[in-house]
Design brief:
Radius of gyration: 19 Å
Helix content: over 70%
Strand content: under 5%
Oligomer: single chain
Number of domains: 1
Mean pLDDT: 84
Largest sheet: none
Low-confidence stretches: none
Distance between the termini: 34 Å
Number of helices: 13
Number of strands: 0
Length: 292
Amino acid sequence: MTGGGVLLISPDALLIKLIGLPDAEILVWRGLLTALGFLAIVLARHGRGAAAAYRRCGWTGIGVALLFSLSTFGFVLGNQYTRAGNVLMILAGAPLIAALLSRVFLHERLPRRTWLAILACLVGIALIALDDAGVGSWRGNAFALLAATAMAANFTLCRTRQDVDMSPMLTLAGVIVAATAVLYGVSGPGITLPAGTTLAWLLVLCLGLLPLGFTLLQRGPLYLPAAEVGLLMLLEVVVGTLWVWWLLGERPSPAAFAGGSLVLGSLLLKGLVDRRVERRQRTRDAVQHGLC
């Protein structure tokens, strides 16, 4: 589920390039259109029980919506004020932040293989971002750190209510993003809906891919520790780079190839090890159950 969500949002950077709108306008339309997309998904899944699905989230859901909004602002504005390489390297720290938050607040212990995969992926993301990294603006770096921390805190907060699906509250998150952009003048005067190809790509991204992808991602903490969800999100960097290379001809450097291979290899190896451990555990449980 989490991996599928990552693949759906992986063309995000590519489509933002194709849309070509300023970051300020992206915030407004991204917020409004994703809110409509999330609402449509909730109505399709729950029908007449949609209102109850929102109520079940309670105050925890409001916290999830606020944190998701902060991560959106941090990601978009971070790319505006500093280099993309800086943002990528800072965002790669999200699994570590999630692991620390889960350890402190939820007392969750991660197996050694997860820590090794996190460290390997950090190295891989650093290689991908190497050519684009620089000193950057302290403001942009701060926004990127905000995005990473808010993302990690969001997944950790979801783990406190493992019996409740928090994805409906992403509707509120979209409204918060759009409203905040307008209230604080981020959008500027006279914003109008774009037309033609720009509108088509905007609708594909914000009404389709992002709502579907983030709904799946937001459900990930129901089944996985927050750090595991954050770790799988690093796959977006690799797949997103491949999208841009394939369709826009922006060829990654040899270092980026090596980094992407390290991330993909680490996640694949960890997945195979996890599967083997789960099979052993099921066999052990079946034997114990038979003895009882």
